[in-house]
Amino acid sequence: MKKMDIKQVVGIKKIGIYVPEGIRDSKYIGKESGISEEIVHEKFGIRQIHKAGQEETVSDMGIKAAKKVLQDFNVEKLDLVVYCGSEYKDYYLFNCAAKIQHEIGAKNANAFEIHSLCSAGVYALKIIKSMMLQDDKLKNVLLVSSSKEADLVNYKNERTRFMFNFGDGAAAVLLEKGLDENVILETHMITEGSFADDVGVLGIGCKNFHNFDKMKYEDRFLDVPNIQDMKERLDPITLKNFIKVIEESAEASGYQRNQINYIAPIFMKRSILNSILGYFHLNEENSFVLENYGHCQSADSFISLAEGEKLGRIKKGDIAVLIGAGTGYTWAATTVRWGKSI
User: Fold this and answer.
1) Count of CB atoms within 10 A of residue 150's CB?
2) Predicted confidence pLDDT, tens digits, the chain (342 residues)
3) Helix, strand, coil shares of the chain as percentages rounded to 5?
4) Least buried of 20, 91, 124, 155, by fewest C-beta within 10 Å?
5) Distance from first CA to last CA of the chain, Å, rounded?
């Protein structure tokens, strides 16, 4: 692919990761859920998740990730701070982006939020890139994803077993216009809104505002009222939708499926990840399994990308595809050309 006009590119300058010290390993999850440790590890793909303490908030973790990525950067040069993490934040109707902007000292930056559950991080790259290329005032943007959704998991509820991988943590991504390195290319998303009511914290929200005093303890956790029905509708389309968004994102970026070198996934069972990798003639050395992180909402693909670079699995000129999926239900992929132009 020919070198791009430097004025028309947005690159990933740096990724910062923060995870809390608390750990819930497969033994803990097995004991709490009544499922064997072996199944938690082998079938669910969880060695451990990180768990924040009661006093550590979603904004706290986002701020810590942001400070890591900004260690060698003049924060006053930030033009925008965007939060794309969990909607379960410090408070209801709370501007997490503004809190992060203030606490990191980005006094010249504006701040706002993007929400699409666990696909928000991947799709936010498209939104922010488009904004930066259209606005001369946006040169440096900080994207932050943070999640404490492990709070919302009830290990006693078998309907939510696929959520037992939820862990706490945050990622921050520094984006720079005109940076011909780790260039953000094109994005593709699929939305299937028939799943919108299938998952939620059903005891909280405007739908039942007047019934808070009658809320059962278990209604404060994530739930799936009819898991079998959702599974029967979701299983036949999940793999093909992941493959489709990856292919469409790569092709829109000018690459064929056999030119993809690395896939940075959200947390998923190893069997599904290996099916995706196999379709693109790749293996686990072309990805990163999040078995020691768990599912940190839309931060996952950024963690996967950062760990892949650390392990030397992504090389200069490689084509990496970040993938996410959010209940509701959306699947998204964004292609990145790694390193400088070759």
Assistant:
1) 23
2) 445 666 789 999 999 999 999 999 999 999 999 999 999 999 899 999 999 999 999 999 999 999 999 999 999 999 999 999 999 999 999 999 999 999 999 999 999 999 999 999 999 999 999 999 999 999 999 999 999 999 999 999 999 999 999 999 999 999 999 999 999 999 999 999 999 999 999 999 999 999 888 899 999 999 999 999 999 999 999 999 999 999 999 999 999 999 999 999 999 989 999 999 999 999 999 999 999 999 999 999 999 999 999 999 999 999 999 999 999 999 999 999 999 876
3) 40, 25, 35
4) 91
5) 9
Strands (E) across 19-149 are located at 22-25, 48-51, 80-83, 110-113, 140-147
Phi/psi at 306 (5° precision) = -65, -45
Nearest to 171 by CA among 55, 12, 313: 12
How much is the pTM?
A: 0.95
Q: How many residues make up the chain in this entry?
A: 342
Q: Are 49 and 26 in contact (CB under 8 A)?
A: no
Name the 3-class secondary structure at 300.
Answer: helix
Distance CA 48, CA 245 (A): 29
Q: Print the SS3 string covering 34-48.
A: CCCHHHHHHCCCCCE
- Among candidate residues 174, 150, 172, 170, the one with its CA nearest the CA of residue 160: 150
Nearest to 302 by CA among 44, 176, 125: 125
Q: Which residues contact 82 (CB under 8 A, 6 or more apart)?
A: 97, 111, 112, 113, 114, 124, 128, 141, 142, 143, 144
Domains belonging to the chain, first-starting first, are 6-181 (3.40.47.10), 185-340 (3.40.47.10)
From residue 175, alpha-carbon distances to 14, 141, 178, 251 in Å are 8, 5, 10, 23
3-class secondary-structure state, position 164: coil
How far apart CA 139 and CA 190 sit, in angstroms, is 29
